[in-house]
Amino acid sequence: MLKSNLRILLAERKLSKTKVSGDTGISRTTLTALEKENSVGIQFSTINTLCMYLGIKPGDLFIYIPYNIKLKISTYEEEGRAEIEMEVEENNNKTTLRFGSKIILEKNEEYESENQYNLDIRTFLYSESTSGIRNIEENNRRVRQIYRELPTPFIVDMTNQICRDIEHAYESNLLYSEYEFYLYHCYEF
């Protein structure tokens, strides 16, 4: 799995995409696509220009891990939990691992409105009593191993995806359509 490190490189140097675009001639659209990883391809000349401008090597522009990860988040609002399936593809083998999140919906006391709530999301590994997972020890060992091996930008992106998906599920639920939600905490294991 390949991720762009451009956002971090620019932040470390306190550079905006607008400044980089003006200084290098690389369009702001190209820089945004590279930063958000929705580019279909990138020209060698663009990589070369960025490397020269930022004083880096091409390998510094990207972060690589030797597997692909896809997350599928299922929320169960009435039970205050979510189940996360993490599909890991490594050497053409796909494995699905599972872990969960406890969701605490709390009234936001800082605001006068009756309809404002905080979402407190805490991620956890399943215990022995969890049904549906054949080898719970191996599942949890592998989740921990992958999590420890991930560079920080991958962890941040995964955590943000889990939190966003859970928050969106609560916001889109008709029972909560009149309410505003604020992500209060989002803990990782």
Characterization of this structure:
The protein is an alpha+beta fold and 189 residues long. 37% of the residues lie in helices and 30% in strands. The protein has six helices and seven strands; from the N terminus they run E-H-H-H-H-E-E-E-E-E-H-H-E. The strands form two sheets. A five-stranded mixed beta sheet has the order 3-4-5-6-7. It has a two-stranded antiparallel sheet with strand order 1-2. A hairpin with an 8-residue loop joins strand 5 and strand 6 (116-124). The chain starts with a strand and ends with a strand. 13% of the residues are buried. The model has no long low-confidence stretch (mean pLDDT 82).
Largest sheet: 5 strands, mixed
User: What level of helicity do the residues show?
Assistant: 25-40%
Q: Kindly state the number of beta strands.
A: 7
User: Can you count the helices?
Assistant: 6
Please trace the helix and strand order, writing H or E for each element.
Answer: EHHHHEEEEEHHE
Element layout with pairings:
Blueprint: E1 2-4, H1 6-12, H2 17-24, H3 28-36, H4 44-54, E2 62-64, E3 68-76, E4 81-90, E5 93-107, E6 116-124, H5 136-149, H6 152-172, E7 180-187
Parallel strand pairs: 6-7
Antiparallel strand pairs: 1-2, 3-4, 4-5, 5-6
